[in-house]
Amino acid sequence: MSAAQKRQTAAFFILGFATMLVVIPIILTMAYVVFKGIGAVNWSFLTEAPRNGMKEGGIFPAIVGTIILIIGTMIFSLPLGVLAAIYLVEYAKDNFFTRLIKLSVVNLSGVPSIVYGLFGFGLFVLFLRLGTSILAGSLTLAIMSLPVIITATKEALESVPASFREISLSLGATKWQTIRNCVLPYSIPGILTGTVLSLSRAAGETAPILFTVAAFYLPRLPHSVFDQAMALSYHLYAIATQVPNIPPKISFATAFVLIALVFLMNLGSIILRARFRKKKLW
Amino acid sequence: MVNEVIIQTIDLNCCFEKNCVLKSLNIDVYKNEILGVIGPANSGKSTFLRALNRLNYLDPSYSQTGEIIFEGKDIGILPDSILRRKIGIVFAMPQVLPVSIFNNVAYGPKVHDVKDKNRLEEIVETSLQKAHLWEEVKDRLDMPAMKLSGGQQQRLCLARTLAVEPDIILYDEPCSGLDPISTAKVEDTMQQLKENYTQILVTNNTKQAARVSGRCAFFLMGDLVEIDDTDTLFTNPRDGRTNDYITGRFG
Fold it and tell me: Which residues have CB under 8 Å from A119's CB, separation 6+?
């Protein structure tokens, strides 16, 4: 074996080892949660409210709360994020101010979620008097999701070949017609990916909803968007650390349901993306 | 016969940042002629074309002084969408949209508010016929345009430009990526469009300019060196630099 081939083999080994180092802990974590939790997951666990200080019963209100929060987050963050990204990519002049905004957006996606939680508490719960409510929680999660959605949309828009815009404009289309017909349709897969990633993160976060929406123990469904709600992530935190003598299988089953929910969301986006990919012909 | 000027530039300077690629250009283009524009790379040919329908302004660093008069009026008074509809362009590499053949041609009419389906079908058919592509694609208009051959794609681009009924068609090295047979087809089409359209052909291929154009302009380093009847320019150029270029001594 020549030296170059030896180096190649060594490089492959290191690259493969790095990949395994990333993949194995994920698989082990998932397997552990599934193994420990799946036994407790049954129909009544999914459809009943918790009983007896959460030591018994199901997690139905938490599932519903998380789904409502995801939908609320999407309603507030998706249109706003996509529109902002369109403005930044297609309309904003490239100057110091625009570059500052773009840099800030990227940096905001790295801000710890507890900071968003406190910000949401200050702005929505106290200042805007929304109280601890689904509305305040959704808005807080939406603000946390915005940077990721904007960044993903921005990258999706920028990856559409410049020639598409040129063709459209050269035929006398206006800028908006061009964006609408020749740019947006081809950036939808990228926008979807970014949105689902950020919504998955929102579904699993505890800190942003801690002071803005989450109810510790509320064994019923919320009445309106101004009501508090349970959420899977916070419920898991509560039963795992705050309440003594909870059977571990209930905690693991809750974790399993949360992971399954996020997995289903990602699966949905993969299917949607594949549909749009079929139209992508360049 | 007195030639009617359809578009002219007066002291046109075109610059990107501080780099002026066209310097005080004065040129008249006559109605229904084919004007060939030749010259080596970086001579400002494409910038000249793209100045006429303001595509240069897509580059934020672009600036321009002087006037461009189209049908007696400065093009500055027309909105971009109207100007570009009247002055269409066919780009160097065939650039089709990743949609069907039909929708490529119908795109222009659609953005100009043609909604009636029959009318759209009619426009698509006539445009494809004018571009000599109809016979080859009439049975598969729903096929993705990207599956056509290079020559067919370029004629599709021409059909797409024709579909918005322009007065002037600009060609930016339309045959640079095509084989000789496809090139001949595009050139034939240009000859047949002469009756109804003014055409400006920028090309790196001096022979093509000699074959197709009625008049020809020679650009060098941002200057218009010479413009004359194509026969005169190629057989008896006034400027030594033109002679050097067309005889292949540089460029």
Answer: A140, A143
Whether the pTM exceeds 0.90: the reply is no
pLDDT (mean) for B2-25: 90
State the Cα–Cα distance between residues B105 and B219, nearest whole angstrom: 33
Least CB–CB distance from A170: residue in B60, B84, B99: B84
Q: Is pLDDT at B189 greater than 70 in this prediction?
A: yes
Predicted confidence at residue A218, as pLDDT, reads: 86
Helix (H) or strand (E) holding B125: helix B117-130
Nearest to B81 among A164, A173, A182 (CB): A173
The CA distance from A40 to the nearest CA of chain B, in Å, is 50
Instruction: With beta carbons less than 8 A apart as the criterion, state whether B120 and B106 touch.
Output: yes
Angle at A100 between CA A97 and CA A106, to 5 degrees: 145
Q: Give the pLDDT score at A56.
A: 82
Nearest one of B21, B6, B18 to B224, comparing CA atoms: B21
Which of A241-245, B36-40, B205-209 has the weakest average pLDDT?
Answer: A241-245
Q: How far is CA B202 from the centre of its chain?
A: 7
**pLDDT score of A31 more than 50:** yes
Residue A19 lies in a domain: no
E strand intervals along chain B: 5-16, 19-30, 34-38, 62-70, 73-74, 87-90, 168-172, 198-202, 215-220, 223-229
pLDDT at A165 over 90: yes
Confidence of residue A57 (pLDDT cuts 50, 70, 90): confident
What span, in angstroms and rounded, lies between the C-alpha atoms of A19 and A202?
26
Query: What sign results for the dihedral spanned by CA atoms A184, A189, A190, A191?
Result: positive
Q: Which H or E run includes A50?
A: strand A50-51
Whether residues A167 and B98 touch (CB distance < 8 A) is answered with: no
Asked if the Cβ–Cβ distance from A174 to B95 is below 8 Å, we say no
pLDDT in the model for residue A282: 47
For chain B, domain boundaries: 5-246
Residues of B within 8 A of A168 (CB-CB) are: 97, 107, 111
For residue B3, pLDDT over 90 is answered with: no
Q: Which residue among A166, A171, A279 sits closest to B160, beta carbon to beta carbon?
A: A171
Please name the fold of domain B5-246: Rossmann fold (3.40.50)
Q: Examine the pLDDT at B128 and tell me if it is beyond 60.
A: yes
Query: What sign has the CA pseudo-torsion A134, A139, A144, A148?
Result: positive
* Residue B163: closest C-alpha in chain A: A171
What pLDDT, on the 0 to 100 scale, is given for residue B2? Answer: 61
Structural domain of residue A167, as residue ranges?
38-47+58-277
ipTM, two decimals: 0.90
Both tokens of A190, joined, read 């990228």
Cβ atoms < 10 Å from Cβ of B63: 15
Q: Is residue A4 part of a domain?
A: no
